[in-house]
Every structure is written in structure tokens, then in C-alpha cells.
Amino acid sequence: MNVHLPTEATDAQKRRSGFNRLRHAFGYSVAGLRAGWKETAFRQEALASLVMIPLAFWLGQTWVEVVLLAGAVLLVMIVELLNTGVESAIDRIGPEWHDLSKRAKDMGSAAVLLSLLLCAGTWAAALGSRLL
Q1: Which of 48, 53, 92, 125 would you label with 116, given CA atoms 20 to 30 Å apart?
Q2: How far apart are CA 78 and CA 49, in angstroms?
């Protein structure tokens, strides 16, 4: 029977608790953002968010509208990071072409597209409401 035994580092992470666990989790999150920054698409979306999120406070007429506008922008960035994670995991498996690898990457790309369409639609509706 082939049983996967956790490595010492994995076991140490599982045993952390309280502030120590939070501190390490925050560090991993920052490392993920740094890794995402190396991706052109994420960089473009992050730079666009520097304009769009403050603009959401001007464009939104209620706090709900502000949250929807800013949330749509953040959702694009979240989905982009997840897509990059999927692509990295697939690439880690191997460079050869496989139908399931292509399918996973295509689905990740489709998720990014849908999040972009949601963001564009949300912003178009808000702009139309505000300007017309």
C-alpha cells in the first residue's frame, strides 16, 4: 500500500495555531501576490484596479454600488490568480500535450473571460445610470 506521509515542513504548518498561523498564512498570501505580479495579465489588472477602485467611490451612488463596482474589479484579479495557479500546476505535471491539461487551462481562461464580462457589464450599467 502506497501511503503519502506528510513531510516535516507540512506537519509543522499543520501544528501552528493562533497568531503564528496567521502570520505564516499572511506571508504565503504575500508570496502569492508577488508571484502573480510576475504575470503580465495580473499586472495589467492590478494597475487598472488602482484607477477603477477609487473611481468606484465616485461612480457608486450607494455603498452597495461601490461594493459591486470594486468587487467586480477584485473578482477579476482573484480569478486571474486562480487561473495562473491552475496553469502552473498543469505545467508542473509536464510539458507534453494532454487533452485534460488543455481542458483545465481552457476552463481557467474561460473563468477569467466571464469575470471580465461581469466586470465590464457592472461598470457599463453603473456608468449608464450615472451619466444618462
Answers
A1: 92
A2: 12
**From CA 88, how far away is CA 45, in angstroms rounded?**
19
Cα(70)–Cα(52) distance, rounded to whole angstroms? 7
Query: Where do the H-state alpha helices sit in the chain?
Result: 8-15, 18-37, 40-59, 63-93, 99-131
Cα–Cα distance, 86 to 90 (Å, whole number): 6
Length of the chain measured in residues: 132
Enter the pTM of the model.
0.85
Residue located via cell numbers 481552457: 106
Report the sign of the C-alpha dihedral through residues 54, 60, 63, 69, in that order: negative
Catalytic one of 45, 65, 80, 87 = 80
Cβ atoms < 10 Å from Cβ of 81: 17
**56 touches 66 (CB < 8 A):** yes
Tens digit of each residue's pLDDT (9 = 90 or more) over 37-75: 999 999 999 999 999 999 999 999 999 999 999 999 999
Is 80 an active-site residue?
yes
